[in-house]
Amino acid sequence: MMTSDAPDTVHVDTSPSDHIQSGAVPATPTASSTLPYSWSGFTQYAWKVRWEFLLSLVFLLLAFGQKLFSNTFSIDTEAIIQAQKNLYRSWIQLSRFGFVWLKKIAGTYWYNNALSGFLTVILFAATVFLWGYVFYALSEKKEKWHIAFFVIPLFVSPIMAEQLGFLLQSPSVCVGMMLVALAVMTYVNAASVRVHRESHRIRVTLAYHLLAILLLAAAFSLYTAQISLFISAVGMVYVYKFFSSSSSTRKSEHSFTSFILIPAALSICGYIIYSLLNRLALYVYHTSTDAYVNDQVRWGKDSLYHIIVTILRHARTVYFSQRIYYSLAFTVLGILLLLILGIRFLCRRTPFSAVLIMAAVFASPLIMSVLLGMVPTVRTEFVYPYVFSFIFLLLHELLSVNSFLSFKWSQLLAWLVLLAVCFGQGQISNRIFYTESVIYQQDVLLASQLATRIGEVTGMEHPSEPVVYIGRHIPRGNADTYKSTDLDLIGRSIMDITFSTTHGDWVKNHFMAAQGYSFRMPSRAQESMAEQESLSMPRWPAEGSVQKINGVIIVKF
């Protein structure tokens, strides 16, 4: 607990295995235990917040309701449907061996798009619920604690819509986020162990730390970007636990060592174990790391000036809400929170360390940009919605005890801001998935038209010649859909996302096959020939935009 009058020593005859059951780590401290997390504490939390959480699910349905029973999909999903073995092998090459192993363990190795959409929504709700417990157990104001202020901003986040819109991996990403939450609970429990015998305390603490390392290694194997979530969560936990603490409490709990330095060391150890397991996976599957992984890191490849300018420009995009995925409310509320904490510091009610670390948390959405030295894909920036939720949660708690308004009016203001901001964010997420649905239908229609034209050119329903697609096709959507330039990947046409002729052929041919129109893949030499021949061809849908030349079917967009 955060109270300074907690007993210095309480006999706890326990071990990590006694306190981590059924997927949650132990909990609310009692007279006989100083551990913040326990199974009994989790059940108490679940019972207390059950109705508010159920009402909050309305916002999950606002943002993700379409994915519950939808069968639409975006880029890469066509490959797992038609070239499952190749895609799983590419995940090994991308250092995501945990994805492959988890799918085998869970019995979802054979991909089912409808099932994946359903599991994504259910697991996302469970993930956010578990993360809510991370902060509930640390709160000194449990009687005034409201889960809605944490879960609703996460449910409606457009960044989470982008991340979890990749249905081929989204259930595994949710599992990874839950593993990170458990790792956070575990290291906090380790810092809270109080026993009479020092030797026993060391053994229990080390056991907790080892468990945290293993949880982190597993999370990184599912999605390496989870490391950014853990880093940010360490800062959020520190701020939430110590923002109103006394110096004696921080000293007795070794706050900086136990809650900053040790978690940093645990993440490094977890990453080392993950790296060793990754090497083993590459050896077992007789493959090597894809060049794409190393190309993502620009440090040492681009000039330092270029990298710094890139990061600063991305920071401007994030904090000034220059894309649909970001909200100006994040910046305004984050600055307001820092100002309140700063005033509390001047009044000697909040330690400077909490103010400083909260500033770092506020900047943590840029972690991936800093680590890579470039602008990351939006789906890897899921730290942003977690920080947004934390800002809402902490602001609400501060308003509950410190406000120039009465308690009733401060609560009303907090709820109005939460609902207004999150309804707007939910509309954006909903529109992203609506756009995906409309564009997907247009892609399916285009696939049918292409198959018909190819049949007319070759005189066969299933020709033996390979098909090469030159260029890209951008559907028009409708007046209510986002434009392709507004979006990152989710919601864009599969026929639009083309980085090269080879990449385009891989994506388009597999999408055609997913609709029942299977054609042979071309060789690189055939693609080079098609690129030259297409120079004199008209663009789709003009007559002559689909031709058979030198035994290759060429489609020019």
Automatic annotation (TrEMBL):
It comes from the Bacteria. Keywords: Membrane, Transferase, Transmembrane, Transmembrane helix. Pfam families: Glucos_trans_II. InterPro entries: Glucos_trans_II. GO terms for molecular function: transferase activity. Residues 1-32 are annotated as: Disordered. The chain crosses the membrane at residues 53-70, 117-138, 145-161, 167-190, 202-220, 255-277, 324-347, 354-376, 382-405, 412-428. This is Glucosyl transferase GtrII.
